[in-house]
Design a protein that fits this description.
The chain contains 22 helices and 17 strands. It is of the alpha/beta class. An eight-stranded parallel sheet has the order 2-1-3-8-7-4-5-6, with helices on both faces. Strands 9-10-11-12-13-16-14 form a seven-stranded mixed sheet. Helix 5 packs across helix 6 (103-130), helix 6 crosses helix 7 (157-167) and helix 19 (519-532) crosses helix 22. It is globular. Bound molecules: zinc ion. Zinc ion (ZN) binds at residues 180-182, 254, 256, 299. The site of zinc ion (ZN) has 6 residues, from loops.
């Protein structure tokens, strides 16, 4: 009751804050943005940013507008007909995006980029009409020139939006501030002869040596820190704003300069990136009372890149920095909302309707096997859930078009859910799970006996090394699958998810969220993590499997002992693995453990 009350008062507080101070920022987004082909960029990043902003009551639905695809008339203001014609060839589009695309995926990629160009156009329209800052949750394709696409950029949305304004009579000077990690070479090339559009880009390395009549191009090399970037900006940006006197500023707020970015080589911190963004916005605001400003997302690679943009937009809307939740939490929140629409009565109804009695049944020759997943969901219901949560789209984005989902009850405990792709019916996902009351007394959990997520078309690399038990790289949807099972637990009132990691790395990956059922096992895992810290996970796992870790007390070798772990969902289970008794037992066992890697046998 108390919790419910605080939820309600929290909601009223957020509503009041919003009502008293509606943001002078508007957003442009389209749900189809999540259908982007899976590369290094997280296709759900715009959805996650919006989820965060709406969850915190910072924006409302009506602050977000949907774009229309850009007309070819507008695209042709920048790109040559010959280049646009060359895009009918899927290999041309595939090369730009760094993916192998068939005709259908290529067409979808073109449709999506046309939509995103429309989004940047919409942003300029809204910024000029309303005087609000217009944030487009996409776009920033700064590498595309008039006759060539490159570096994930097919059409240059920035240039097209600016040329469209020119065609409509907008004559004010325009300033493009491009702080994506990479060189804004395409935009600079398009406006090379145009003194009215100043292209300002700070980047790690140049992409061309084309000069331009109104341009600032600053190369900082690799390893750039907050101070280095901020000092550069403070010195170089304000003079450009003063001399160019823009009537419109386009800010490419790429976050691939963040330390830990999957593609970048800079070391910007979360605080440094917000500082950078505030500096740009404040510099523009000081330039004149109401210089229209649009912001596009630009680059940012890896599952957590969205958080940098979310932090910036949270500040832009509210004037304070609100810390976004971590990636696993935001996925869970989104799934929880969607799962409210599931009608479990329907899923459970007619449980036996598709079991016509056969002669074998009547003679007692065949035992009936329940092919409902977790004894609850029909194949149809599972497919519907995964579709609504966007999981199937995430798999399709990897080029698997005709997904085939089946449920099989012939092996082991519980049911096996399989998803095959085409062609050749490659196995992509295999999940064998059942409900269990035996893992923790008094509690009921989903026990995962086996989970395989693999992309047979992907190859291992330094970034994605092969781990024991892996035949192919993963599908990149582990967090989504975990969040799906968590909302299933919530709806079925189950306490959590249990599994027995067969390798150390599986326990280490989920360390923050998983707990060993037995405190002594948790103490062993903690000791392993402490002694293997520093190296990467594949190396740590190898060191352990090769018997290179030594128990200091006994002098014996340490090996991985598979034990049950749980991901708590209910308060009952969470209380059990966070209770003072549990923690005391972990500390007591941990104090007796010391493992070490002999220096001469350190991680290879
Ligand atoms: Zn970039």
């Amino acid at each position: 009751m108390l919790q419910r009350l605080s939820q309600v008062s929290g909601r009223i507080g957020r509503w009041l804050r919003y009502a008293l101070r509606p943001p002078d920022v508007c957003f442009i987004h389209h749900p189809d943005y999540a259908r982007a082909a899976a590369g290094l960029m997280d296709p759900a990043r715009a959805d996650k940013i919006l989820g965060f902003l709406t969850d915190h009551g910072l924006i409302r639905r009506h602050d977000v507008s949907r774009p229309l695809p850009a007309s070819l008339e507008n695209v042709l203001r920048v790109h040559t007909p010959a280049y646009l014609e060359s895009l009918s060839d899927p290999t041309v589009v595939g090369e730009i995006l760094g993916l192998e695309l068939g005709p259908r995926e290529s067409q979808e990629a073109l449709d999506l980029v046309r939509l995103m160009v429309g989004g940047t156009i919409q942003a300029t329209r809204l910024a000029l009409r309303t005087g609000k800052v217009a944030v487009h949750l996409g776009g920033g394709f700064h590498h595309a020139t008039s006759d060539e696409g490159m570096g994930f950029c097919i059409l240059n949305d920035l240039a097209i939006a600016i040329e469209r304004l020119r065609a409509r009579g907008f004559q004010e000077p325009v300033l493009v501030v491009d702080l994506d990690l990479h060189d804004g070479n395409g935009t600079r090339a398009v406006f090379a002869q145009d003194p009215t559009v100043h292209t300002f880009s700070v980047h790690n390395a140049p992409w061309d040596d084309v000069g331009a009549v109104a341009s600032t191009s600053i190369v900082l090399g690799s390893g750039v820190t907050d101070d280095r970037l901020l000092d550069t900006l403070e010195e170089r940006l304000p003079p450009v704003v003063r001399s160019h006197r823009p009537g419109l500023v386009v800010y490419v707020a790429g976050v691939d300069g963040a330390g830990g970015d999957a593609l970048g080589d800079w070391k910007l911190t979360a605080g440094g990136i917000v500082e950078r963004d505030r500096f740009v916005v404040n510099t523009v605001r000081h330039a004149g009372p109401s210089v229209p400003l649009i912001v596009v997302l630009g680059g940012g690679y890896g599952a957590s890149a969205w958080r940098h943009s979310a932090r910036f937009f949270g500040w832009l809307v509210s004037g304070r920095v609100v810390e976004p939740p971590d990636d696993a939490e935001i996925i869970l929140r989104r799934f929880r909302q969607i799962s409210q629409r599931w009608n479990l009565e329907t899923a459970a109804a007619n449980r036996d309707s598709d079991w016509g009695l056969t002669a074998e049944d009547l003679l007692g020759l065949v035992t009936r096997v329940d092919t409902r997943f977790l004894g609850q969901f029909s194949r149809h219901a599972v497919e519907l859930q995964l579709e609504q949560l966007g999981l199937l789209d995430r798999i399709r984005a990897r080029g698997f078009r005709n997904l085939d989902l089946s449920i099989d009850a012939s092996k082991g405990l519980g049911q096996t859910l399989r998803i095959h792709g085409d062609p050749g019916r490659e196995l992509l996902m295999e999940l064998r799970a059942s409900r269990s009351r035996s893992i923790m007394p008094g509690l009921e959990v989903i026990e995962i006996e086996w989970l395989l997520l693999q992309d047979p078309r992907a190859t291992f690399s330094d970034r994605r090394p092969q781990l024991p038990g892996q035949e192919h790289p993963g599908l990149g949807i582990m967090r989504d699958v975990a969040a799906w099972l968590m909302v299933v637990c919530e709806r079925l009132r189950l306490d959590g998810i249990a599994f027995v990691p067969s390798q150390y790395y599986m326990a280490a990956v989920g360390y923050r969220h998983l707990k060993c059922v037995e405190p002594e096992a948790q103490a062993r895992l903690d000791a392993l993590r402490d002694s293997l810290a520093g190296g990467d996970l594949a190396e740590a796992n190898r060191a352990l499997n090769q018997g290179r870790l030594v128990d200091e007390a006994s002098g014996g070798l340490v090996s991985w002992e598979p034990v049950p772990m749980v991901l708590p969902v209910s308060a009952r289970l969470r209380d059990r693995v966070t209770s003072p008794e549990y923690q005391a037992a972990v500390s007591q066992a941990r104090a007796k453990l010391a493992y070490r890697l002999p220096p001469d046998l350190s991680v290879t």
